[in-house]
Specification:
Shape: globular
Largest sheet: 2 strands, antiparallel
Length: about 150
């Protein structure tokens, strides 16, 4: 797994030319250890296949989860700002877990995510369109990485 999470892997992820490619490279190009990338590698690298970080339902209870996802967010922000004019509105991908291009379990119906896709955060924040979350330095988020 150490090879999968090397600086070379990060460079490969960050060399993506568009968001859909970046997201696919962060998630991994195939199932299993050989295809693992930065997102899954962080989850499985802490506690292994049966640890809390590998469990979709319990991983948010682990404080490391939030550090890990903050790191993924920072990578995306860094990637965006390398070509801000072209990437500030670059988004896409399936609205369904394991939808195309991740058809590891067969085809699953999905819609392509757009800037107008509504993310539902329940009572915490309500519904937010993706376009309002594309720039971490702008309202309502207002944070930056240094």
């Amino acid at each position: 797994m150490a090879q999968s999470l090397s600086a070379d892997k990060t460079d490969f992820v960050m060399s993506a030319s568009e968001y859909a490619e970046l997201e696919h490279r962060i998630e991994g190009l195939s199932l299993g250890i050989p295809g693992i990338s930065l997102h899954g590698g962080g989850h499985l690298g802490i506690g292994g296949m049966i640890g809390d970080m590998a469990n979709t339902y319990s991983s948010p209870a682990d404080p490391i989860f939030w550090i890990h996802h903050g790191g993924i967010d920072r990578l995306w922000d860094t990637w965006q700002r390398r070509d801000w004019a072209n990437r500030k509105e670059d988004i896409g991908g399936p609205d369904t877990q394991w939808g195309y291009p991740y058809d590891y379990y067969g085809h699953r119906p999905y819609k392509n995510v757009t800037l107008d896709f509504a993310m539902d955060f329940g009572e915490m924040v309500g519904t937010v369109k993706i376009r309002k979350a594309m720039d971490t330095q702008d309202a309502p988020l207002c944070y930056s990485y240094s």
